[in-house]
Amino acid sequence: MSRPFPSVPVLSVSVLCHKDGSALLIKRGKPPYKDHWSLPGGKVEFGETLAEAAARELLEETELTAELDGPVEVFDSIQRDENGDILSHFVLAVFVAKNPSGTVMAGDDATAAEWVALKDLDGRITTPGTPARIRRLLSKLA
């Protein structure tokens, strides 16, 4: 089986940036989950801390900077093909970003970036578990 991704888990980060009852989502421009809405994030580079990777990915994909807390959650994202064979395996450390500054603009491999009200999360095609993760993590902050 040829595999488009590495045959080992890939360490990655996601950033839940929030303000005024909305969460910042990006539309993914590359597989896996191309054209799905997701939290900003990506792979951790060699020699980079998780927090450095989270700050870099937030800036690259949205043009925003923010205060980061975390990681607040770590989870596996495993994508399988129709036969059940593993296509990709990412281990994601999720950070929460508060007090964002800058003007949202999609960059890097994001094709769009938008503030989305919590009530509107379910109306979008998202990466698996994203709306529930956002609501769960934000409810812990309240």
Automatic annotation (TrEMBL):
Record domain Nudix hydrolase: where: 6-139
Domain of life of the native organism: Bacteria
Keywords: Hydrolase
Pfam families: NUDIX (PF00293)
PROSITE patterns xrefs: NUDIX
GO molecular function: hydrolase activity
Presence of the UniProt keyword Hydrolase in the record: yes
The protein, known as: ADP-ribose pyrophosphatase
